[in-house]
């Protein structure tokens, strides 16, 4: 069901045929239509504005410039935390500060950290030059991944979908 988005246009009639032939659930056909009704042009721009002004899933504030943030930090084991969250400007900055602190602390408490932390901060510095672009990318990817759900639930539920997206992003690091 989720893979239908990435299929080529000419593969869709074949897939639809197959669903009909095998007498599979008609809802599946509808879902594929929703999933592939991609947001483009003015509709995409409007959706982005709606997202920017929607309620933040962290602090509940509205109209506080919702953006996509890549939150990344290194931790004591050989793991790093990496997630693309969609939150308001102030929450994103807070999360970023926290990840700097966590990474810097690692540098104080382990030899391993001393070696890795400078590279982490150089990486963050380089990333800081393209924050706007990163935000655009994260939001566009979110819209693409949720095409069917946004179509199905309508724009009013967009903040619920963002909330869910943020939870999934945090969980994938556990
Ligand atoms: Zn917030």
N to C succession of SSEs? HHHEEHHHHH
List the bound ligands: zinc ion
Largest β-sheet summary: 2 strands, antiparallel
Quote the beta fraction: 5-15%
The number of distinct helices, counting runs of at least 4 residues, comes to 8
Provide the gyration radius in Å: 20 Å
Enumerate the strands of the largest sheet in spatial order, edge to edge or round the barrel. 1-2
* Number of beta strands: 2
Overview of this protein structure:
The chain is mostly helical and 174 residues long. It has two domains: 3-35, no CATH class; 41-171, no CATH class. It contains eight helices and two strands. The protein has helices at 12-21, 26-35, 41-52, 89-109, 111-128, 131-145, 147-153, 158-171; strands at residues 67-74, 80-87. Helix 2 (26-35) crosses helix 7 and helix 4 packs antiparallel against helix 5 (111-128). The longest helix has 21 residues, at 89-109. The two termini are 26 Å apart. The mean pLDDT is 90. The protein binds zinc ion (ZN).
Q: What structural keywords apply?
A:
mainly alpha, 2 domains, two-stranded antiparallel ribbon, 8 helices, elongated, binds zinc ion
Summary, kept brief:
The chain contains eight helices and two strands; from the N terminus they run αααββααααα. It has helices at 12-21, 26-35, 41-52, 89-109, 111-128, 131-145, 147-153, 158-171, and strands at 67-74, 80-87. A hairpin with a 5-residue loop joins strand 1 (67-74) and strand 2 (80-87).
Question: How are the SSEs ordered, and which strands pair?
Answer:
Elements: H1 12-21, H2 26-35, H3 41-52, E1 67-74, E2 80-87, H4 89-109, H5 111-128, H6 131-145, H7 147-153, H8 158-171
Antiparallel strand pairs: 1-2
Bound molecules: zinc ion.
Zinc ion is lined by residues 56, 58-59, 61, 64, 87-88, 90-91.
């Amino acid at each position: 069901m989720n893979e239908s988005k990435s299929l080529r246009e000419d593969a869709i009639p074949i897939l639809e045929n197959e669903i009909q032939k095998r007498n599979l659930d008609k809802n599946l056909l509808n879902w594929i239509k929703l999933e592939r009704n991609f947001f483009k042009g003015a509709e995409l721009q409007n959706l982005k504005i709606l997202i920017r002004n929607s309620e933040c899933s962290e602090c509940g504030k509205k109209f506080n410039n919702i953006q996509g943030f890549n939150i990344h930090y290194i931790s004591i084991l050989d793991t790093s935390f990496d997630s693309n969250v969609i939150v308001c400007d102030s929450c994103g900055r807070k999360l970023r500060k926290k990840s700097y602190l966590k990474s810097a602390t690692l540098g104080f408490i382990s030899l391993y950290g001393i070696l890795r932390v400078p590279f982490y901060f150089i990486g963050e510095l380089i990333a800081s030059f393209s924050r706007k672009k990163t935000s655009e990318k994260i939001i566009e990817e979110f819209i693409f991944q949720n095409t069917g759900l946004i179509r199905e639930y309508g724009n009013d539920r967009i903040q619920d979908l963002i909330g869910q997206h943020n939870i999934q992003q945090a969980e994938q690091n556990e």
